[in-house]
Amino acid sequence: MQDLKILYGYSWFVSSAYGNVQALNQAYINKLAKIGFNVEGFCLTLNPPGPCLSFSELDARWRRGDRELLNMYERLERALEGKNVLINSSGINLHPEFVAKLPVFTVFQCFDDPESSAELSKPTASSYDLCLVGNIAEVDTYRSWGVKHAEWVPMGLQPTIYDASISYDDVLNGNRELDLFMMIDRTAPARKPRLDKLALAFPNANFYGKGWPRGYLPNNKELEYLRNAKIGPNLHNSSGPINYRTFYLPANGVLQVCDNKNYLGKIYELNKEVIGFDSIRECIDLCRYYLAHDEERRIIAANGWQRATSDYNEFAVFERNIQIIKNLISPKICNKKNTQIAVSHAKTTNLRRHLYDLWSFKEIGPRTIKRLVPSYRLLKTTWHNIYNNFIYHNHNLNLPHGLIEELVSKYSAQSWFIYAAKERHSRWHIRCPSEWIVRHIPKHSLIFETGAGCGLNLVWLAQQGFTNLYGSDVSAQSIEVGRELSARLSLTIDLWQDDGLKPTTLPSNVDILLALNWTYHIEDFSLLDFLKLYRNYLVSGGFFIIDIVDKSYDLIKDNQYLTSDWNKPENERRPSEYKTRYSENEVKDACLSSGYIITAIIEKPSKIPRVVYILNRLQLQT
Q1: What is the pLDDT of residue 479?
Q2: How many angstroms separate the CA atoms of 294 and 62, rounded?
Q3: Assigned CATH class of 6-156+317-338
Q4: Does the predicted model carry a pTM greater than 0.70?
Q5: Does residue 608 contact residue 543 with C-beta atoms inside 8 Å?
């Protein structure tokens, strides 16, 4: 049997629950390599972090030879040189026609069936040599699609969500205070009626997540509550079991009471390691029974702990997958001679790609336009019309004529806000990070802006569909403008007066924290202190977005003077408005010392060398 040389493809998405997903994937791959597996990682997400492509979009990009997609495929082919196995661990972003031509053993893995089958697994799975199916109830469904080989793969344990120090004896004899504990979205329509009945039966239960009166449980409290819980109900939207609760509940010594009883019995031994049910009435009765019969609860929970930690830890699960691959793999290996799939496809789709670029008015040169479209002047005119009537307005705020002028005058606020509202499209250091948020962040995320002025950024985000928006500013007049502005536009934005350097009121569990266009105006501003100040209000894995004036500004002639005074005689010039400047290395050092990493950097050529840093708060190690 040949040795497996594995390229492990993973997704990188924004997650307040899991924190820095990229770092977690890399840590997992490093652990596998350390215990002897020949495995390297490869990010399959386009423009990470971000969502995966639906199959409709993936297919459209493949058909037209999308540059971004094919560039990623070229890098993937280069990374596959010398390998003989490709594992697509999330089943994302690889077109079936591309996969079918790869000269390695290909493995598709998915934990999102059946909810995402139509746009993720069904269109692509049959092009792989092996499909590892996370939902044990859907393995036969894969076979019905014509998949060559389909096997169940457990989601297994994530090391950050269970306490490895717990022992069998701890579970059997330890003291636990919480009767019922669960972290789950209550608002999901498919399970909300059942969860409502469960909540009615156990009004004092410790249930957390979206839609629950207790709200979200902070990440750093999860293990504490799991170690202290007696019973953990587990409910699914549809078929299953297919969620992390299936494994982390017993691994933390919690008695799992789970639906999808039939298939649960294929993962654990029913009534010995876990408890299964078929109806919510049965679930309620079983929870009451085991709360009243504590000795039985302890024995079953301890057996479940033993099974989960031995058979479903991250290494046991990966070894299980490797054995399946070894039983199926044929001797082949990837080399440079058979890795030209993306390049070849780019050539065959060249014309299609250029026509698409023209149709979507992307940035291509005038010579290309003249060569492909005879009526260049007409196209140019059309492009300007589209820019002025669509793109300009998409970047700008959608405000009634004269409204911002009226409110600035009414509250004697800074007239600068009028310029900021009208010229938002040209202020890239404000516009670009806002667009990054739209591309990467879920609409329900909690966004807080310190130094928000009258809330123009928050207004724009609200107009893009964001619903959980907060902001503060030191100026009372600015806040009054913002409050009336959002009220007149029927937008829900919570604004209050506060000092961004010495805040007294801050929201907790913030997903995105913005500090744009003000910190560099502060004399003796300390980036390190500022990052430390706000860190504990961000969720683990949350993002801090801040713009910095780069230290290269020190080399610009007259940088020590106010920019509006540069044309005045030197003795009439005032000091620069850009009081503090940081180099990229200084920003990195501040991040390292305060518990962040730099996720992305946005910069554009300009007179003032501003740089937007998107920082990711590192996940707490518990």
Answers
A1: 96
A2: 58
A3: alpha beta
A4: no
A5: no
